[in-house]
Task: structure prediction
Amino acid sequence: MNPRNAGEIEKADGVGIAGNMVCGDVMQIFIKVNKSADGNNKHDLIEDIKFKTMGCAAAIATSSMITEIAMRKTAEEGLKITMEDVADALDGLPPVKMHCSNLALDALAEAIYDYFSKNNYEISEDLKNAHKRIKKEREYAEHLGGK
Result:
């Protein structure tokens, strides 16, 4: 009922977008990262995070909640958030809406991927594979939308 962290971060350190062509939800996550003094990206903290979502109430709620959970965590910790974490923080989601938490996680993963790429950080195989999957899904949806 009261989404938090809605909006956009100008000059974001990372931006991610994910969507679902079946339900039509699209989520965009923006992150501002405080780089660690020791130069170790595993200690870089997400100091600000915002979202823009076009979708149902569950899509907006999961987008908002992912920003609340990821705030003040390292990027690496952000990648470990699960859809169950999001649903639990919302006191549950109907089974038919669980995919919304996956979309929010995908948008966060894309924002972190973008941040790592811009800073020439090592990207894990898991994150590379997630990026390829999300990108392929987005391109397919864009292709269908263009017809």
DSSP finds five helices and three strands in the chain.
